[in-house]
Write a structure and sequence with these properties.
This is Tail assembly chaperone. The chain contains ten helices and two strands. It is mainly alpha-helical. A two-stranded antiparallel ribbon has the order 1-2. β1 and β2 form a beta hairpin. The longest helix has 19 residues. The relative contact order is 0.13.
Amino acid sequence: MSDNRPAYEEFAISHGFVTVRMRPSLRAATILERLHDGFSNLFRHVDEFDLTTIKAVVMNTATDRDEASLYLAAMERLPLDNFYTSAMPSVSAVCRAFIPEAEPTAKPTSEAPKPWSEAFRDLYRIATGWLHWTPETAWNATPSEILNAYSGAMDMLRAIHGSADSIPEIDPEQARENEQNGLDPEYDRRALLSLRARLGGAL
């Protein structure tokens, strides 16, 4: 993933003593993507400052729905311009954070893009299946967080098991020593011990 976004994605809107913290969670992304039948329509309604859409974004991305309700109630008593100035920057930012940034090294593909509903379902499966997160943790994580965690898990597996282009040449002397000890000639004990130390004994 690109480093343009913070590792922990959170946006805030405030009025008086009320602060609403908003997260572009997988749950919110799934709900709001369906609100206007796709993100392009969602973004258009946000850019037009459609009040129904703005309120839906605030309520669904808020980490505390009670705070969100208090904020929206306060905004109803103020001129619309005040609401726009207070909410628009963060509401726009949290919506655009629903879409993960592309990997810089990602290769172009000729395949048709997958619908976001399917992409978010796949992210949920990755989070609960590959990463063993609880359903609640998966729904509360952002799409970018899930992808970054998955990428980290894959890096760990490559470090442990190696890959076709990352496994070093086997030392012939090490291979002979392995055979004499009844081991696989390609088993490099020293490399494994080094890996154990690097991972802090996690293996």
